[in-house]
Amino acid sequence: MPQTMTSADLRVHNQIRLLRAVHDAAEPFTRAEAARLLGIGRNTAAALVGELERARLLHEVPAESGARGRPTTMLVPHPEGPVAFAVDFREDSWTLASVELGGAITELEAAEHDRTPAVFAAIRAAVARHETPRLAVLGFATSGPIRDGHRLHISHLGWDEVELNELVGDDWPATVIDNDARLAGLAESRRGALRGMGTAMHFHIDFDIGGTLLLDGDAQRGAHRIAGEFGHMPLTGSPLACMCGVRGCWSLDVGANALVRRFGGEPGYGTGRELAQEVLRRAEAGDPEAVSALDDNAAALGRGLGALANALDPEAISLSGMGVDLIRLRRPLIEAQCAEGLMAFRRDEPPTIMAGTVGEQGPLRGAAEMAWDAILDPDRLRERLHSG
Amino acid sequence: MPQTMTSADLRVHNQIRLLRAVHDAAEPFTRAEAARLLGIGRNTAAALVGELERARLLHEVPAESGARGRPTTMLVPHPEGPVAFAVDFREDSWTLASVELGGAITELEAAEHDRTPAVFAAIRAAVARHETPRLAVLGFATSGPIRDGHRLHISHLGWDEVELNELVGDDWPATVIDNDARLAGLAESRRGALRGMGTAMHFHIDFDIGGTLLLDGDAQRGAHRIAGEFGHMPLTGSPLACMCGVRGCWSLDVGANALVRRFGGEPGYGTGRELAQEVLRRAEAGDPEAVSALDDNAAALGRGLGALANALDPEAISLSGMGVDLIRLRRPLIEAQCAEGLMAFRRDEPPTIMAGTVGEQGPLRGAAEMAWDAILDPDRLRERLHSG
DNA sequence: AGTTTTTGTTCTCGATAAGAACATAACAAG
DNA sequence: CTTGTTATGTTCTTATCGAGAACAAAAACT
Question: What are the phi and psi torsion angles at A371 (to 5°)?
Answer without folding.
Answer: -65, -40
